[in-house]
Amino acid sequence: MATTLDFPQLLRGAALRVTRPRVAVLSAVYAYPHADTDSIIGAVRRELPEVSHQAVYDSLHALTAAGLVRRIQPSGSVARYESRVRDNHHHVVCRSCGRIADVDCAVGEAPCLTPSDDSAFSIDEAEVIYWGVCPDCSSTTGNS
């Protein structure tokens, strides 16, 4: 996992200018996996109180386009961001509270699913979302 000192180098390596908002957004995404935009704005504003919503949105867009963060959006959810990129993992989502966790691919190499008909596409990724109920919600439901 990257440390705060790695963030400027990550930005430079992706040919992005190093700015305080970008470093703060990267820090927030690493600190809060699967955070939504409002949570990221809150985390960034604790470090940079003067940062605008637009600066955070612009940073998230640039970081996503550069492949430094990944944007996911499970059905019925707002967009979420994570720092785990360039690997073959999926997500499990709680139907009750919306909690999201990473799930490694069972096969290991990308794409981990082979479609029955690829329609002549060159497939390089498969996005899988498992749905269920997390342990906290299961125990709450079981105690009712």
Automatic annotation (TrEMBL):
Keywords associated with the record: Cytoplasm, DNA-binding, Iron, Metal-binding, Repressor, Transcription, Transcription regulation, Zinc
Broad class of where this protein is predominantly found: cytoplasm
Signal peptide positions (record): none
UniProt xrefs under InterPro entries: FUR, Fur_C, WH-like_DNA-bd_sf, WH_DNA-bd_sf
Pfam families on file: FUR
Location in the cell: Cytoplasm
Gene3D superfamilies: 3.30.1490.190, Winged helix-like DNA-binding domain superfamily/Winged helix DNA-binding domain
Keyword Zinc-finger: no
PANTHER family: TRANSCRIPTIONAL REGULATOR FURA (PTHR33202:SF18), ZINC UPTAKE REGULATION PROTEIN (PTHR33202)
Family membership noted in the UniProt record: Belongs to the Fur family.
Protein name, per record: Fur family transcriptional regulator
Lineage: Bacteria, Bacillati, Actinomycetota, Actinomycetes, Micromonosporales
